[in-house]
């Protein structure tokens, strides 16, 4: 009766439904999943829900999956590989139908996700791209746009980044370097500035001020800075103001992501916007198509980004 299968008289059907309602019967979804080999559950692995880009992306994906009849199990790894491995084992034991993996510190090794038949990676390339699917922003293009804009504004750009070996950061570094080379700009020890990611904001801004002073001694004209995240860009903006530098007259800054914080600083942050809606829709569409056994025409998809020109450029 509950599954709307088989032949049951209308009189008996009503009696059974009355009993279901009276005793608040709930069917065992786990047992049902074992029998049908389908749980209508999707696992989502994300590196850090404190990051607005990741949290907005997860929220979008969850909404789209829910509208398609799926529930989600969201796992925040805190960029911890051991924690990530434990989550993957747990999701496998819960027999999720599919897996969406968002970013992370490194390329996925095949043995980490080989137990899952339907996997879509977002901004984290699997070793075997023929076996798994990938959706991500065009980070290389975004870095080229940001760097070229800073050069147009009369600066010799420097790239500020948090220490990371993630593929999006590697692509942004490559785009930055290639653009410098194409414009006959030579890299020096202040072209790429890597900072340790820490919860101590004062420590981070102290280091940024130190690098800004070094750049002032070495660069001619206004400083140009491409920050690989909006959070870092805003820290640079505030550090510059604390040593009486005017943005954008003395320092010109471009961030990356178009996070909400970009609109809540003064001046508002010029940044590279990632299209969260398109990334979410593409990832879910590919995953559902895979679950339905459809032939996937494009297993590797990059979503274009755009410059949002505000007040720091």
What can you tell me about this protein's structure?
- α6 packs parallel to α7.
- The mean pLDDT is 90.
- The protein has helices at residues 10-22, 29-36, 52-67, 81-93, 110-113, 139-152, 167-182, 201-218, 230-242, 276-291; strands at 41-46, 71-76, 98-102, 119-122, 133-137, 157-162, 192-195, 223-227, 251-257, 270-273, 300-303, 306-308.
- By secondary structure, the chain is of the alpha/beta class.
- It has ten helices and twelve strands.
- β6 (157-162), α7 and β7 form a beta-alpha-beta unit.
- The protein starts with 9 loop residues before the first helix and ends in a 5-residue tail after the last strand.
- The strands form two sheets. Strands 2-1-3-4-5-11 form a six-stranded parallel β-sheet, sandwiched between helices. The chain has a six-stranded mixed β-sheet with strand order 7-6-8-9-10-12, sandwiched between helices.
- 42% of the residues lie in helices and 19% in strands.
């Amino acid at each position: 009766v509950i599954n709307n299968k088989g032949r049951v008289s209308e009189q008996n059907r009503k009696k059974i439904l009355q009993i279901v309602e009276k005793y608040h019967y709930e069917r065992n979804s786990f047992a049902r999943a074992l029998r049908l080999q389908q749980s209508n559950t999707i696992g989502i692995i994300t590196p850090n829900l404190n990051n607005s880009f990741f949290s907005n992306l997860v929220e979008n994906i969850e909404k789209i999956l829910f509208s398609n009849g799926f529930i989600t199990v969201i796992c925040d790894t805190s960029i911890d590989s051991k924690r990530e491995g434990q989550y993957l084992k747990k999701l496998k034991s819960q027999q999720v139908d599919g897996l969406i993996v968002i970013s992370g510190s490194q390329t996925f090794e095949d043995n980490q996700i080989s137990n899952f038949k339907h996997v879509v990676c977002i901004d984290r390339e699997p070793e075997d791209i023929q076996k798994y699917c990938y959706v991500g922003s065009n980070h290389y293009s975004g870095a080229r746009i940001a760097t070229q804009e800073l050069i147009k504004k009369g600066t010799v750009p420097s790239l500020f980044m948090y220490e990371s070996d993630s593929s999006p950061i590697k692509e942004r570094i490559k785009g930055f370097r290639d653009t410098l080379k194409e414009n006959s700009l030579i890299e020096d020890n202040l072209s790429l500035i890597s900072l340790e990611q820490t919860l101590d904001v004062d420590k981070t801004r102290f280091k940024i001020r130190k690098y800004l002073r070094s750049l002032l001694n070495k660069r001619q004209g206004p400083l140009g800075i491409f920050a690989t995240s909006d959070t870092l860009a805003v820290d640079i903006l505030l550090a510059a103001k604390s040593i009486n530098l005017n943005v954008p007259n003395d320092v010109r800054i471009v961030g990356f992501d178009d996070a909400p914080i970009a609109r809540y600083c003064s001046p508002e942050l010029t940044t590279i916007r990632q299209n969260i809606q398109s990334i979410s829709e593409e990832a879910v569409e590919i995953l559902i198509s895979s679950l339905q056994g459809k032939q996937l025409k494009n297993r590797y998809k990059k979503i274009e980004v755009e410059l949002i020109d505000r007040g720091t450029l």
